Amino acid sequence: MCIRDRPYITLPMPSSITTVNLCVGGNTQASSTYVSTGTITTLQGVSVIFDPSAPVINIPFNMEFISQTGGTTSTKYRISKAEDGCAGIVNEGPLVAMKTTSSITVISEDDYNICIEVDTDSYLAVTTLRIGQLVASPATYVRFMSTELRSSPSISGLFLTSRTDCGGTRYTASVASPLNAPVGDYQMCAIISGISAASSNRVYVINQYIVSLPDRNTCLLYTSPSPRDS
After folding, report:
1. In the structure, what pLDDT confidence band is assigned to residue 13 with cuts at 50, 70 and 90?
2. Which residue has the higher pLDDT, 189 or 118?
3. Residue 186 neighbours by CB distance under 10 Å
4. Calculated CA dihedral for residues 181, 182, 187, 189, nearest 10 degrees
5. Which among 123, 136, 193, 226 could bridge 60 via Cys, Cβ 3.0 to 4.6 Å?
6. Could you give the count of Cα atoms lying within 13 Å of 68 in the half-sphere of its Cβ?
7. pTM of this prediction?
8. pLDDT tens for residues 25-68?
9. CA angle 84, 112, 201 (to 5 degrees)
10. Which residues in 63-88 are b (16+ Cβ under 10 Å) and which e?
């Protein structure tokens, strides 16, 4: 599409990946000569579903690209640091039916662009994702209390262990199964696809505590006039 004498152009939204040629032409109405200055690739309605829903470093995850229009197809993805656009390569691989074919693991906390290939060795960012550390939240639990272990981002299958490598005895908790770990400090861990990941902070288990009030004499204070004065 080539339009004369306009500082901008408006393109119809594509139903899938669309590449258009951008041209410039003469500055007179009689001129019909146009020169290509390059191409522009546009993409509409593509979202990404992550599994688990909030990826963290050292925990494998998978991706599925969903086209809102149903017309987008691609055979490759790439993960790049956000500052690099889609040029840097942190991880890349094939897509089958717009899904990753193997789990992805990122080891550095950062902001990343999730890109798909729109032409041979040409990638376009679909979304930006913050991949950070697993954080135990809260970091204190009470023994024998019915509660759930929680983390940020939220991940299922959490447990506590005294070892930083996530080995040893595992202690779990749920609403139906109170926490029975001895008093002490622990590492919160998750194991997904056979790979363990530890929280960046330690978790503390404490005893239940009882609040008691010392005995007091109770006094009634009244002022005159009072029914007792009549």
Report:
1. very low
2. 189
3. 25
4. -10
5. 193
6. 9
7. 0.64
8. 655 555 567 777 666 555 556 889 998 888 888 888 999 998 77
9. 130
10. bebebeeeebebeebbbbeeeeebee
pLDDT of residue 214: 65
pLDDT of residue 222: 46
Residue 130 CA to residue 190 CA, distance in Å, equals 19
Q: Which residues pair with 80 in a beta bridge?
A: 113
Question: Which is nearest to 70 in space by CA: 94, 41, 46, 42?
Answer: 46
Q: Which residues contact 88 (CB under 8 A, 6 or more apart)?
A: 80, 81
Give the residue from 166, 152, 203, 199 showing the smallest Cα distance to 182.
Answer: 203
Tokens of 102: 């193997």
Query: Which residues are CB-neighbours of 109 under 8 A, at least 6 positions away?
Result: 57, 131, 132, 133
Nearest-angstrom CA–CA distance, 140 and 153: 17
SS3 per-residue string spanning the chain: CCCCCCCCCCCCCCCCCEEEEEEEECCCCCCCCEEEEEEEEECCCEEEEEECCCCECCCCEEEEEEECCCCCCCCEEEEEEHHHCCCCCCEEEEEECCEECCCECCCCCEEEEEEEEEECCEEEEEEEEEEECCEECCCEEECCCCCCCCEECCCCCCEEECCCCCCCCCECCCCCCCCCCCCEEEEEEEEECCEEEEEEEEEEEECCCCCCCCCCCCCCCCCCCCHHHC
